Amino acid sequence: MYKAIIADDEEMVRRGLVNHFxxxxxxxxxAGVFGDGASALEFVRExxxxxxxxxxxxxxxxxxxxxxxxxxxxxxVKIVFISGYADVDYLKDALKMKAVxxxxxxxxxxxxxxxxxxVVGMLERQQxxxxxxxxxxxxxxxxxxxxxxxxxxxxxxxxxxxxxxIQQSIEFLDIxxxxxSAYAALVLRLQPKSKWLAVGNMQEKECINFDxxxxxxxxxxxxxxxxxxxxxxxxxxxxxxxxxxREENRSESNISQYLQQRMWDEMNLExxxxxxxxxxxxxxxxxxxxxxxxxxxxxYFAPAGSESGILAGQRTVLAGDLGGGYSDxxxxxxxxxxxxxxxxxxxxxxxxxxxxxxSILNGDISxxxxxxxxxxxxxxxxxxxxxxxxxxxxxxxxxxxxxxNIQAENxxxxxxxxxxxxxxxxxxxxxxxxAMLASVYxxxxxxxxxxxxxxxxxxxxRVQEIIAAQYMEQLxxxxxxxAVYLTPTYLCVLFKQVTGKxxxxxxxxxxxxxxxxxxxxxxxxxxxxxYRVGYFSPSYFSRIFKKYTGQTPxxxxxxxxxxxxxERG
Length: 569
Description:
This protein is an alpha/beta fold. The chain has 23 helices and 10 strands.
């Protein structure tokens, strides 16, 4: 309900306005009635008032002076003047006070009703507009963190914005940066091992919450160093702009080591940190960010103990002990690598798994190198360096799928995963990594050829026995591989090496031989032969049989019957 006061020096007018007008019907409460402007002004200073109905001429303080004083500190109050016919000069001044309207004495109730209805309408519109503005202001305040982050992330991209345009936008968003101070870009990423161990088996929602928890810890740690500007661009990549005017921020190794220790102590995570050289100018943030990322890349390939602006000691942990959950077994390593190849690298993974595993089992060195070269050429097309490195590690441990059920001490170059990973991390760039993988693959191929001969013959013999006994069933490579405790890929290559045929070709051959036996027995109908050898479609069986023998089943039986008739003398 709106609040109104009445100020008039005539008691009859005051009583008439209070008692003979339906204020409540207009949603108005008369909060006070005064005989002069001074008393009314004193009340308005202490109480919220929406409407003032005041006489123009009063003792002590007239209505014009009252309105002028009230509008100075409460400009939204609506003023309605009451005047006599002789108060024309006063009304001229009243119009300058932005009065809503005026009413002449003696007061007409209908005229007053029209004026008050108009005033209430103005108050309602004003209230609605104010609510809309307040709502927009609240939404803007709620959106400020997101807008700040989006603006900071946009500074990581190359753009044509001027320094002045950037400065204006960050001032509006209240981002604590300026064009004059010196800053350094800091980029923090999870080490691949920590990332795989932490999020490898998480659902998407769990990954998001985990990412946010790391970001919150990153912000808290940096806040202890007085760093106010920190945000994130990609998943599990966190960025800060260090104010190099602060003495404590000038020691890059100190802040890096502190970040490493806190991340390990509170979340058991190992991190990589790159810090750019100091720079000035907000347009330089893009180049500084790239430089910090470059330093992380240099540190990823750098040997332990080298200095390249990366978190002290983190390479020693990766290339040395490799503790903290890394399993030195095929199952443990493969589980760590689950989830490495997704998205853009999925097709590469499928192709690499088939070509590289087959080439290693075949033992042809030139084919191994060609398959690896194709895989590396494909991964170079992946957009992010981290994705490329993840895929290289995937390639490093891909052959472990060939060594299921082989004792750990008899796995050749894969006997020690720690040693293998340590050697991988000593490589500088994709070229050295590819050369190392080629060497490891070749060594493994020779090792497998030495150890598999007796075991292979036994496994292939067992597969042949299963096919001979179950040719009429729907056999699959996977079920056969499971029966002899080999991987499907390993079994396929091994079977062809020993028999000269693929498993499917051998199954077809076995079925066709059995079909010939059944066709020679005239008491078995032709379409029954189809079902007895494992086919559901007589037409398909007939087509396969003709392809294999050069004759349809009917032609073959007819020939058998003709050959079985005794010759006439």
